[in-house]
Amino acid sequence: MPSMIPDPDAPSEPPEVMPDRPALSEAERRFGQLPKALRTIEAAPASLQGYLALGAWLEKTSLSSEEQQVVLLSVSRESRCAVCMGAHGLLAEMMDLPPAMTEALRAGSRLPDQRLEALRQFVAAVAKAHGRVDEAEVAALEQAGYDRQQVLEVILGIGMKTLAHYSDQIPGTDGQPLPAACLAC
């Protein structure tokens, strides 16, 4: 008969919600330190694992890495999160996105590529309306060459960043008051 006494050395959480140490190590290696958003979310292993899983799934979508950064930077801008704008700006640079494109995304300015501009506008509309966009906005994205699958993949990216933004904005989630940098942007 198995012992009913818990092992004091065993983790207190089920393994499926333990922090993803390899992914955290990879993030730390890529950035030179663990990004603030991940340090904040790490306090809730299930949330961290969800965030990392959403990021991994976003990378497997039909959206190019450039389009993924358009989504992530655009939703970060609409959420007024300087922390996320900085992190994704750094990622965009690491991915060799043109600096002018990254600056335009940070500023919410028009992108020279019409397809990417339609994507930027759609992400901004979805973020501003909390998902309540009309058919004309979806049609504009589709006219730029995106399909219904990609509309939903955009929502995946927005959901990923929403988890990070909300976690970072709630006072006390990281033991600190609301970041002044986010209030100022």
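(ticket continues) Second input and output from the same batch:
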Amino acid sequence: MTASTATRTAWLQIHLCVVLWGFTAIIGKLISLPALPLVWWRMLLVVALLMLLPRVWRGLRAMSARLRWSYAGVGVLVALHWLTFYASIKLSNASVGATCMALATVFTALIEPVLTGKRLSKREVGLGIAVLPGVALVAGGVPGDMLIGVVVGTISALFVAVFSSLNKRLVEHSDALSVTALEMAAGVAAMTVIAPLTGLLSPAFGGDPFVLPDLRDGVYLLVLAVACTLVPFALSLMALRHLTAFGSQLAINLEPIYAIALAILLLGEQHELTLQFYLGVAIILGVVLVYPLLVRPQKIEHPEILATGESKVIGE
């Protein structure tokens, strides 16, 4: 395969990944389970499938105890991110949840210097300020009963910024599939522990994770675990070998656009939201898409983020 053919194939692969990731919000809306059992089953299915691979077991054995505990801690944050992401969708809709995830890139630019000691740049501060009018328009453009979904979705984007920044602090590099399995397993454990507490927050959060989903939800969960998590994860790892950091970051930043377009086509959500909301979306996505132009992205160092975050923050 020539270099140009490999690059074209990689572009097709990464855009297919972005489309599949865009379906996570749609499927989350279609699943009737509350957020916690939805996340619990999704993570459990991913862990079960990954544990079938001998490579994963070899990678886990190669990790030091300190590193395993570090990744497990990140896995708890990943679980909280998914919990709040799907709760946001349940409390509002898929378009709102996807829009909030677009904020993760900006949050990471502001939070990462605090967690890693990296110097905060004026450009990144400017990006943070530029996104504020978009957030205000989004908040003002949703029905009053959906506003709590915007708040919870924003918290979810903050979790992305925190765990993606912490992953960059882990100086030892381990097998991406092994790290993903470990983080997912820690997430299942965390969701099991906090299940009684989430039921006190809202019906959108709570629910017994041990109740078997019905056939319809079971099929959606399997699609979520395989077609929207593991398949695009594997494809993206292959595609990133042939793409520049700028190109991959730009493509992956399109994920909220795909998700919102799918929500309009499949769920008709444009009837629930106002023009003001979509103007806010345009500002937020404009900032996110210009980010790679202003801040030089770096090659992905922790590819497990591509399997664990509904927002894929891969550059610095």
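Agent notes: DSSP finds 15 helices and no strands in the chain. Residues 32 and 222 are 14 Å apart (CA to CA). Closing as not reproducible unless the customer responds.
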